[in-house]
Amino acid sequence: MKGDNSESSFCIRKLTKTEIPEAHSLAWKVFCEYESPDYSAEGTESFRKSLNDPVYLSGLDYYGTFDGSKLVALCTIRVEKRHICFMFVDGSYHRRGLGSRLIRHVLNEYKGESVTLNSSPYGLPFYKAVGFVATDEEKTIDGIRFTPMKYIPQSKE
């Protein structure tokens, strides 16, 4: 049932190496549509460069949500630091719970561990809603605006 909003119509899984270029294309498309308007030209260029920097991209695990064979959401995590680097959902799939399901899937992969990320201004309400808390004020580095955040798992006491 492609396009259906039911959870069963979407598949979340780790991406293969051959799917990574598609993931970068999705990240760039969503960034340009939703993030870039809040950034300077320097910030947009810095983000574009990160998508093409093999050193920056090394050590990332890629997870995606698929609607049939179409990648519609992406989350990457830098494994050794437990740091989410990219989190993007195709605009036509916003407000359907896909981002929440995807990030919970990734957090579940690191169950019991703290996970960090740097939220864009656009993503801040989403990350707060899924349980991340700001650890500092907004910063701007190389034109990229972000708020450092951390997810601390709840203890089962």
Automatic annotation (TrEMBL):
GO terms for molecular function: acyltransferase activity, transferring groups other than amino-acyl groups. InterPro entries: Acyl_CoA_acyltransferase, GNAT_dom, N-acetyltrans/Recomb-assoc. SUPFAM superfamilies: Acyl-CoA N-acyltransferases (Nat) (SSF55729). Keywords: Transferase. Gene3D superfamilies: 3.40.630.30. It holds the Pfam family Acetyltransf_10. The keyword ATP-binding does not apply. This is GNAT superfamily N-acetyltransferase. It comes from Treponema ruminis. The lineage of its organism: Bacteria, Pseudomonadati, Spirochaetota, Spirochaetia, Spirochaetales.
